[in-house]
Amino acid sequence: MKRQIPLMLVLVFGMFLIFQYFIPHETSEEVYEFLLDWITIIGIFAMALAIWSLFRVAVAKVRTRKENWGYSIFTLVGLFSMMIFGWTAPNGEGWGWYFVFVLSVLLSIGMLVQAMTVKSGRGLWAGLMLVFVIIAVLIGIFDNAWSFYFMSAEPLENPMFRSFFDFVLMPILATTFSLLAFFIASAAYRAFRARNLLATLLLVSALIVMLRFNPYLAPIFGDYMAKTSNWLMNVPNLAAQRAIVMGVGLGIVATALKVILGIERGYMGKG
Amino acid sequence: MDNIGVIISLILIFGGLVALFYGSLKGREVDRRIIFLFIFLAVAAPILFPMTFEEKATQVVKSVFDKVENLPEGSTVLLSFDFDPAMAPEVQPMANAISRHCLEKGHKIIFMSLWATGQALLSQSLSESILPGFPEKQNLVDYVSIGYKAGNEGVPNVIITDIQKMFPTDVNSVPLDSIPIFDNIESCKDLDFIVSFGGGKPGPKEWILFVGDPGGVPIGVGVAAVVAPQMYPYLPDQVIGILGGVKGAAEYESELIRVHPKFADMDTPGLLMMGPQTLAHVVIMAFIVIGNVVFFRGRRREKKE
Q1: Based on the domain organization, do A160 and A94 belong to the same domain?
Q2: Would you call A44 an interface residue with chain B, using a CB distance cutoff of 8 Å?
Q3: Which of A14, B64, B122, B166 matches a 20 to 30 Å C-alpha distance to A228?
Q4: pLDDT tens for each residue of B38-83
Q5: Which residues 68-97 of A are in CB contact (within 8 Å) with B?
Q6: Domain check: are A9 and A75 in the same one?
Q7: What kind and span of H or E run contains B246?
Q8: Same domain flag for A138 and A54
Q9: What is the pTM of this model?
Q10: Do A34 and A26 contact (CB within 8 A), yes or no?
């Protein structure tokens, strides 16, 4: 039963959505839109599940003192700090007891993690957690310097949220992405060698497209560079990309049919 | 001072490359760390001593520009910020330039995002880059941000028939039915133009598949350079134009300044970033040549032996 019900659901809804596409009737479209609402609901639950999963994995790492377990503490601090900053914002210039509140919440989560990970003395950690929770709740109720915002975008302008986003997350992601330049250069040096006819074609094409992007070197070759580059992008590249798109599309259809018919069951956690 | 800095940097880089080329004639391979050092210099020098270039919009970029330029005043344009901070340096400049262009032409803009991190970047763009140039423009009247909604491709799939179903309010909890921009907008089919900025999933491709094609809405895309070739199959019917990477942003910025000289003083990160990109490309091309010289020298030596 545990396996049959999900398989049945996938079969029914999968077949319905296939046939629905070819039935241009109002009722059919209404049912389709109703089903689409579920995607949002599932998406939100998936996000909550992902946060819970991340929390559990990080706590387990700390508990078992796995290699690099210290990073998990940073993961948890980052996760909950951004959640707090993303739900709160100052009402004016002053911060009031805001930072004590944030610290109390983080410490209470820390005590909770500690209570979950230690073998003895759990009562002490649970008691401390309760103290910090009470402090956070009292500040939340009586401090008017800041407020909670669960339904609007004010926290996006919270200086703490913006600072962590602008000066921590953005540089980290941008740095990781920009490291590609170094590896692309190194890979180009080693890979773009005229070993045979196909490699030579690839090398020449790459050079032409790169030259086309160069504001100093492209004008030397006049319109020929732009024309050749456009031809490369619009004819061979387009043909290959279209073939890939068609191939991927057919692959998706085949995989979807296998899932709908219950041949492919990997999504249930078992092959 | 800047010119001297540029000249010294160029002498250092090209002098080094000539030395490496000379070494390659003797069959000497270049160490990976040397390549990294040259790329570092090629990127850092134009940032420290800015080098700017004249850019001319290519047809794929001009199509998007002309679409915005020729839409009647008061048209409604949806701009979707479907990217994260990793893609932002490439994609955010073009998003800012198109937003400015739309506001300048008097179009109504609906901002949104299919990526959770996109909403914060959108908020940053609005407050730091776009709105300071248009103090007369009013929120909810000239532009509105409806923010991010979870659901990936499910979001465009729903808003193709009913925007309010997915976004009952804007980011500040103002009901959509009380916002003037939405007076005549029920679904994406009522929009005059949509531009998706991104490169990942969900992103431009999902807008084409689930909104542009079924709804017959003109779509323009602004994507990271590595994604641009994947967008060409959709040209010119499903996508009217493509802005690819820093080059696309620079072309759009230069066209915007050419047609609307009031933007001559605006910040042009796309044009500025062309300096590091151009020099890095030259260095990469030089290393490709050096690599091939080493390869052929090695092959010749092998044959002799």
Answers
A1: yes
A2: yes
A3: B64
A4: 999 999 998 888 887 778 888 899 999 999 999 999 999 999 999 9
A5: none
A6: no
A7: helix B245-259
A8: no
A9: 0.83
A10: no
